[in-house]
Amino acid sequence: MANASCILKNRKNIILAIESSCDETSVAVVRNGREVLSNEVISQIDMHTIYGGVVPEIASRKHIEVICGLSDRAVGSAGISKSEIDAVAVTFAPGLIGALLVGVNFAKGTAFALNKPLIPVHHIRGHVAANYIAFPELEPPFMCLVASGGHTLLLGVDGYTDYKIIGSTRDDAAGETFDKAARVLGIGYPGGKIIDRLAAGGDPAAYALPRAKVEGCPYDMSFSGLKTAVINLIHNAEQRGEELDLHNLAASFCMAVSDMVTGRSIDACREFGYKKLCAAGGVAANSVIRRELEKGAGEAGIELYIPPVGLCGDNAAMIGCQAYYEWMEHHTACMELNAYATLGADYDYSGMFF
Question: What is the CA radius of gyration of the chain?
Answer without folding.
Answer: 20
